[in-house]
Amino acid sequence: MAQPDIQTAARELADAIQAVDRIVVFTGAGISTESGISDYRSQGGLWERYKPVTIQEFLAGEDARRRYWQRKKDIYPTFAKAKPNAGHRAIAALERVGRLQVLITQNIDGLHEIAGNDPENIIELHGTERWVKCLACEKRIPRAEVQERLEAGEEVPLCKCGGWLKPATISFGQSLPEDILARAFEESENCEAFLVVGSSLLVQPAALMPGVAKHAGAWLGILNRDETPFDDVADWRVNGEAGPVLEAAMPYLLAT
Questions:
Q1: 195, 235 in Cβ contact below 8 A?
Q2: pLDDT-based confidence at 3, cuts 50/70/90?
Q3: Which of 87, 90, 119, 185 could in theory staple to 242 by disulfide, Cβ–Cβ 3.0 to 4.6 A?
Q4: What is the mean pLDDT of the chain?
């Protein structure tokens, strides 16, 4: 696939954004790999290094809960030290200049909020790794506090009420919250432009959202390292890293 140079791609993207009032941005793991966070599917990714524990396994057995928390203990330092990159900062800037309708993300790292996006304007489809939730009383605890307990020797941390603690993320085998999913589809159906950043669009039902936007008449752009099922219908497609292109597009937008 031919790839335009970064400045050409940035200019094309800026022109498309300027042609509409606001744009929906949809991000996946590809934007966060540039911050040092491993994705799931690529060689050496999380699926290759750790066997997933389903929500059903977590609820059913102490051994599964122990394995789950061992994995979380091991990978948390990577999340904790990760910083927003140029792509995250560019999307935050897009919101500051009033061009962002909403940000839909598959990521659980919280880097969009750290970069400056308003939490109210972020739809976290798969939850967040920054918080832990009690499955009994629903109390929320900062993830960093639970990490201290794990490093002190706890294997399966419990809430003060005695309930099981689990990061506020969507586990394998667990359905996405209906209200969050409904909002994401509604925003997708009612936008003028929809930009995919760093997602191969293989995880359902989130992967349907670009098609919903396109079917409703929106401009569809895809900025991703690998191919996606929507490449043939996209109005703009660049095969590459997200940060450099998004960063290069911002001066054009900020100049208007």
A1: no
A2: low
A3: 87
A4: 92
Q: Which residue has the tokens 């208007």?
A: 256
Q: Does residue 126 carry a catalytic annotation?
A: yes
Q: What are phi and psi of 140, to 5 degrees?
A: -105, 135
Select the highest-mean-pLDDT range: 4-18, 44-58, 119-133. 119-133
pLDDT of residue 101: 98
pLDDT at 1 over 50: no
Q: Of these residues, 88, 112, 126, 215, which one is catalytic?
A: 126
R_g over Cα of the chain: 19
CB atoms within 10 A of CB 253: 18
Mean pLDDT for 112-123 is: 97
Beta carbons of 46 and 109 less than 8 angstroms apart: no
CA-CA distance, 119 to 138, in Å (whole number)?
20
- Identify the structural domains of the chain with CATH numbers, from first to last: 1-37+84-126+176-256 (3.40.50.1220), 39-81+127-169 (3.30.1600.10)
What local confidence, expressed as pLDDT, does residue 43 receive? 47
- Whole-number Å distance between alpha carbons of 114 and 105: 14
Q: Using the predicted structure, report yes or no on whether residue 82 has a pLDDT greater than 80.
A: yes
- Positive or negative, the Cα torsion across 26, 199, 252, 1? negative
Tell me which amino acid residue 193 is: A
CA-closest candidate to residue 216, choices 187, 237, 179 = 187
Cβ(248)–Cβ(7) below 8 Å: yes
- The Cα–Cα gap between 180 and 104 comes to 10
